[in-house]
Amino acid sequence: MNYIKLLFLTVLIGGLHSADAQVTISPGSAVSLMTGTVVNLSQDLAIQPGGTLNSDGIVLLQGGSLYDSGSAVFTSNAQLIFTGTDTQNLYSAAPLTVANLTLNNAKGLRPNNSITVANTLVLNDGDFYADTAHPVFFTDTATNPAETNTTRIIGRAVMNPRSIGTSALSYLGCNISFGVDIGAVSIARTTGATASRNIGPGYSIAANWLVHSTNDQQTPNRNLSFSWLSALDNGRDVTAMYLYGAQAPFTTFDLLNDTATNVSATDPRVYFRPNISQFGRLYTLSDNKPLAVNNVIVPVVKVVGFPNPFSNVLNLSITKNDNAPVQVQVMDIAGHIVLSNTYSAGNSAVIAINGMSALAAGSYLLHVYNDNFANTLKIVKTN
After folding, report:
1. What angle do CA 135, 141, 145 make, to 5 degrees?
2. Beta bridge partner(s), residue 254
3. In this structure, what are the phi and psi dihedrals at residue 232, rounded to the nearest 5 degrees?
4. Burial of 135 (0-12, 13-18, 19+ CB in 10 A)
5. Is the pLDDT of residue 235 over 50?
6. Alpha carbon distance, N-terminus to C-terminus of the chain
7. What's the gap between Cα 93 and its chain centre?
8. Cβ atoms within 10 Å, residue 163
9. 294: which residues sit within 8 A by CB, 6+ positions away?
10. Which parts of the chain fold into alpha helices (H)?
């Protein structure tokens, strides 16, 4: 009890505080961390029933775990950082809200309860294991977490409903173009072994997305793209992927495109599907064609962008077995469409893409599609 009183007094004046032993906030004790205060712990932080932690500072767990059996409040400036060398736990007797959470532990973090991220989830190293029964939630103002093959969310992640109206949205690998008003949108993404679904004679990738909008018109005609890391390929042939959707109770998946798409060029993989007419579905992808579908046509299509990288002008060489025009969309890495044009194209054409000189230097995704095919290229703009 004396140690807790000392910690309480020193934290109030800010600065850096370290402890080499387990820190326990006992029943009836309250610890407050002011903005700018850093508490550096090498072992567990345990909040016992009746104990309280109010933090607007930084709690850095270089070892050990957080065990919250009392009341932990992490306000807008608070940061909770896990940077141990062994697997760390985040135990909470009730669902916990954290303003900013950082994972920098190759062995990963395992929460036992639902965690809500109000601002940012920063994944520097290691996997965040979100049990499907206890997801990680993101508020309507939280930023989109950046993931890699070595640091990602495994399990269920939910973007709480956010009003987008006619705007575009990119979150948890689901990218929705701008268009007609679809109200508020929520996205629940599941990854890992539990995410793979039985699609006809085979299985899907180890990722799926449940997308819902409050204004799910019959013909919103929004463009959708889904991106996933190669670690979630689940052994599927990514040179021939198909998009599937299922409505509740999500037992039967319908084929949503009749052409195979090669998504092997990028990691994360990106699958682009124009003009989706209904969002209330569970989406996933597979290389398997259902046995009941016997009219799948793989078009003869070749799309090459040159020069790539480019500085001001990008050309597309397109060879295809139809005479229909093509739609070209350029999307930045945040999922925002920055250019969109329609071009006439016969069986073979070379097209100069307009407006590329105005783009900032960096990497982009270029979608080329019509009613018969969809291709995605990664392009790089230089100064």
Report:
1. 55
2. 245
3. -105, 10
4. buried
5. yes
6. 61
7. 27
8. 12
9. none
10. 2-12
At 251 the pLDDT is 75
Write down the residue that tokens 């699958």 correspond to: 271
DSSP classification of residue 75: -
Do 11 and 29 touch, CB atoms closer than 8 A? no
pTM score, two decimals? 0.76
Chain-centroid distance, C-alpha 178: 19
Tally the residues of the chain: 383
CB 57 within 8 A of CB 38: yes
The amino acid present at 129, given as its one-letter code, is: Y
Overall average pLDDT of the 240-255 stretch: 86
Please state the separation of Cα 361 from the chain's center in Å: 24
Distance CA 248, CA 265 (A): 33
**Facing residues of 84 across strands?**
none
32-54 residue pLDDT tens: 999 989 999 999 999 999 999 99
User: How far, in Å, CA of 139 to CA of 227, rounded?
Assistant: 21
Q: Return all residues near 87 (Cβ < 8 A) that are at least 6 apart.
A: 105, 107, 108, 109, 110
- Provide the pLDDT for residue 297: 42
Residue 41 contacts residue 60 (beta carbons within 8 Å): yes
For residues 57 and 80, the answer to whether their CB atoms sit within 8 Å is no
Question: Tokens for 282?
Answer: 């569970």
Token pair of 169, please?
A: 């949205």
Phi first, then psi: give them for residue 369, nearest 5 degrees. Answer: -160, 160
Res. 10: pLDDT tops 70? no
Upper half-sphere CA count for residue 222 (Cβ side, 13 Å): 30
> Rounded to an integer, what distance in angstroms lies between the CA atom of residue 81 and that of residue 65?
10
Question: Residues near 73 by Cβ (< 8 Å), separated by ≥ 6?
Answer: 52, 53, 54, 55, 97
d(CA 206, CA 337): 27
* Residue with the two structure tokens 């040179």: 239
| Beta carbons within 8 Å of 235's beta carbon, 6+ residues apart | none
